[in-house]
Write a structure and sequence with these properties.
It is a single chain. The chain is mainly alpha-helical. It starts with a helix and ends in a 13-residue tail after the last helix. It has 4 helices and no strands. The chain is extended, with a radius of gyration of 19 Å. Helix content is 61%, strand content 0%.
Length: 108
């Protein structure tokens, strides 16, 4: 029984670390997507303002990439594959400011 417990703990640890490594790789791939698709315009002297990722919250970035909330970026975002969009999302979320805490209240 003790061996089964140890084996289960080791398996869980390996699973956790492997998913962490996968997430690390995803944001790295997202950085490449960002450079290939966004920096063209969003750079110093470009046609659009330079992007400062911490200026936006995680929720704002998610809505932008997932819901394509900006008509100006529609054609660019449509060219990006779903997997690459997910990678881009991981990159943007890595540097985004956290969402503000929500206050849950109970009527009483």
């Amino acid at each position: 029984m003790k061996r089964m417990t140890i084996l289960a703990v080791i398996s869980l640890l390996l699973l956790c670390f492997s998913s962490q490594a996968m997430a690390f790789g995803k944001w790295k791939a997202g950085k490449k997507v960002f450079k290939q698709n966004c920096v063209t315009c969003h750079k110093r002297g470009g046609t659009a303002p330079k992007i400062k990722m911490p200026d936006y919250t995680q929720t704002e970035w998610i809505k932008f990439v997932r819901d394509n909330t900006s008509p100006r970026h529609e054609s660019t975002l449509e060219k990006i594959t779903p997997d690459s969009r997910q990678d881009l999302m991981q990159y943007l979320l890595k540097y985004a400011k956290p969402d503000p805490p929500t206050i849950l209240s109970c009527a009483g």
